[in-house]
Design brief:
The chain is mostly beta strands. The protein has one helix spanning 20-34, and strands spanning 38-39, 41-43, 55-58, 73-77, 80-84, 91-94, 99-103, 108-109, 122-124, 134-136, 162-169, 172-180, 185-189, 197-202, 208-209, 215-219, 223-228, 231-233, 237-242, 246-250, 256-259, 264-275, 280-286, 290-297, 305-315, 320-333, 339-344.
Length: 345
């Protein structure tokens, strides 16, 4: 018969044993150490001034009083160290890690979840909450295939709900892509997280629009005027004005400048309807100094002549366009007469 228990190594009180209380007290001390086991720390060197009852895990290269006891539990009791060999299946609370570990026979490991684990929240190096039930704080996140393809699914309940990816700077939204409040796929951007601009929209039927793309069709107020150049005139009506196009400062000859909202290359066109007795030209003038598009005309024989031209020109945000004239002609102004268009490419 063994003189100790098989699992916990508690000493038996043997027949005719003297000082039975010593054996009994030793068993109680051992139970006190390993039941609800709490490990204060792990190391190779005994701590100075340990608390009575403190339990430490001896590391791989122990020294001093711990020499020769690698992997054992060191229990400080009554002024000296006792060493306990852990058994596979023991669990312990690691105080410094604030975590539970299990001894597998060779190492203390974190318990693995079951195969059908269901969690209300999960935080990976982060705190999850009732809204962000999965929260990850990491340099990168990898979603890999299992032999072929891989899909990431984001499902919403109804068409009016949102299923999207939101990109933030300092927890403030800057871009969003997905199904936001409809079943049309959209890409939106924001300068401040409060005001949003829909850059691209794709309907369920596949039609693609760019609602915030700078686009303008501008004309002077309807009517006719005899103009002898050099002269300038602006615009009075934005028949189409998207993406931030506005009418700016007044032009001396009438109307207002057309102010460009964003920097980039624009496709611009100019249409002129005029009646003239001699040669003339009209141009779309950039910032009062550069002609982007120029239309030249000759005597029309008393009949109005409509002609158009287009070009690609670079405009910076805040640049403006106006009409410039040379020679003498009577111009028909208004929609479909003398007008311009501009579109960011």
């Amino acid at each position: 018969m063994s003189d100790q228990t098989a699992r916990l190594g508690l000493p038996f009180i043997l027949p005719a044993q003297a000082q039975k209380h010593v054996t009994h007290n030793e068993a109680l001390q051992r139970l006190d150490a390993i039941v609800h086991l709490a490990i204060s720390g792990e190391g190779n060197t005994p701590p100075s001034g340990p608390d009575d009852g403190a339990c430490h895990l001896v590391a791989a290269s122990p020294t001093g009083e711990w020499a020769g006891h690698a992997g054992a539990l060191a229990l400080f009791q009554d002024g000296y160290w006792q060493f306990i060999t852990p058994v596979a299946g023991w669990s312990a609370w690691f105080v410094s890690e604030n975590a539970l570990r299990i001894f597998d026979g060779s190492a203390w490991i974190f318990p693995l979840p079951g195969p059908d684990l269901e969690l209300l929240t999960l935080g990976i190096n982060a705190s999850a909450d009732a809204t962000n039930r999965l929260s990850v704080s990491a340099p990168a996140t990898l979603l890999n295939n299992a032999g072929s393809g891989h899909q990431l699914k984001i499902n919403k309940a109804t068409a009016g709900d949102t299923a999207s990816l939101l990109y933030q700077t300092g927890w403030s939204g800057r871009a969003e892509m997905g199904l936001s409040g409809s079943d049309s796929f959209a890409i939106k951007t924001s300068p401040d997280g409060a005001s949003w601009h829909e850059a691209v929209k794709i309907t369920p039927e596949g039609a693609v629009t760019m609602p915030s793309r700078p686009l303008a069709r501008a004309a002077a107020p309807a009517g006719s005027a005899l103009i002898s150049g050099p002269a300038n005139r602006g615009f009075g009506t934005l028949h189409v004005g998207e993406g931030g196009f506005t009418l700016g400062a007044a032009v001396t000859g009438g109307g207002n400048r057309l102010v460009f909202p964003a920097s980039g290359y624009y496709a611009v066109s100019l249409t002129v309807t005029a009646t003239a007795a001699g040669s003339y030209w009209a141009a779309l003038e950039k910032n009062g100094s550069e002609n982007c598009v120029t239309l030249s005309g000759i005597a029309t024989g008393g009949n109005p002549l409509t002609h158009s031209a287009s070009a690609i020109s670079y405009f910076s945000a805040g640049d403006y366009a106006r009409l410039a004239f040379s020679g003498t002609a009577t111009y028909a102004f208004g929609y479909g007469q003398t007008e311009m268009t501009a579109m960011l490419l």
